[in-house]
Write a structure and sequence with these properties.
The chain has about 500 residues and is of the alpha+beta class. The protein is built from 13 helices and 24 strands. It is globular.
Amino acid sequence: MQDLSAPVQSSLSHTTHAWLRKTRLAFVPGPGSPMIREVTEGLLDCFRENGHTVLPQADTPPGAELLLTTAEFGAPVHWRESLNLTARLRFKLDHPPTVVTLLHAPPEAWQQLIDHLRKALAHEKPDPADFSLPGMAKQAYHTLYEQGRRGGPLMAIVRIIQAQAMSVRNIVVVGGDRPSHAYTFDLVGAHPRSDAADRPAFYEDLMLRILTAVSTHEITEHVLCDELIPLALWRSLDTPKAMQAAGRELGRIGFFTEMVKVANLVDVPLLDHVIASQYSEGCYATWEPVLNALVCTITGSARPVEKDNLTDDELAVITGVRPDGKGAYVQQVQDKRNDPPSSEAVEMVGMDEVLPRILLGEGWPARFEVPIARSKLHGHRGVRAYDPRFVEFVPLDPAYYFYPVSCSTEAQANAIKAAFARSEALQNPADPRPVVFTILPGHGVLIVEKWVHGKAPFQVLCEFIADGRLEVENFVPQGPMDYQLDGGGRFVQRLLYPVSSEE
């Protein structure tokens, strides 16, 4: 029997993840043009040539991890035909498969949609008529406008395609009779581009993007600690109040983007039985010395959470990471509502395992040994520039820039842990730089703040964002990037991949 755990060998191995593995997949045909069928066959051949198991169309046994299908660009898929919603039941699978939908966007229709959205997004207020598209809910204009204003026309198109195709992961192939290029979409709005000039490299690139999604898994299997935190102790702590104050300040300076609510995009019965009703755009956490634990915002998939208007019920306590890395240890508060922590809980607390601890001494309320990283902020934003006298940038391992991973996965947590382990400012407590960040391509940013005497949690970070020492922007890189020194002593973002007029 084939060893599906075997690592993937690739001609692009210098830019791919070492943890990619073999998979079993099937093609479930849907509507589409001759070009998209040709691309699908080329992609399936690429999987076969690279040692993956492509199952016959009529044979989708429980071992299928990946399903490829097609849909018509601009035409809504009925929810009963959506593989994303029905595949597990339809094919009697013992697990939910990864579903990827391929769509053919003719150049004229694609450019027309880009131009239409660019014009609509230029208005100071959204016009619902501009976003009245087939398959979209009447109230979709609000989400599409907000997403597009933040990430441009392509970000709005990501949400339109996801709603119309009833599929979270989609590959949109732009071209006439032959493919020109393709975009790979995921839940958080990533849209990296693959060029089709070299056809074998094009198929391999798409295959590797799909494998990156299939080869990782979520780390949200949190475990509850037996001991409860007494409510009186919780109410005596300064950290919950500091988290609420930080949320208000982060909201005031415009850091958080609006939560995406699925019901605002499509009207589908029982959709929340398959995917979350909404998902939040960011989370943050800070260390509480008395509890020797991290206080973190709860997951937005549990219920709507306004990050800039938190209550105690929107906070969770994380004490560590499970030995197998599949989730965090969560300690609940007695007589308080206790929803699960944010899906980024493991990455938030996991980095502390490879960083030093320090002793809070004179000037602090009490002497505690604490992680050097005091506060952590994760958001779907980018960083245009920073002042290296006060801020340090730590890059991820190279493969993560070529093949981004999604949120709440062990791959992202490991990438973040490795990046911050290389931080000079965090490994050396005497380093004067109090803020460190990394960029998550296709996703956003994670920023860490050290302990600074006389400052509340997130106060230094907010001050740096407000005065430009850390210049936050809406644009999130979709591929390789770095920072280069400008004439004014700041490091400014430089993209190391071509950006088209569509982006």
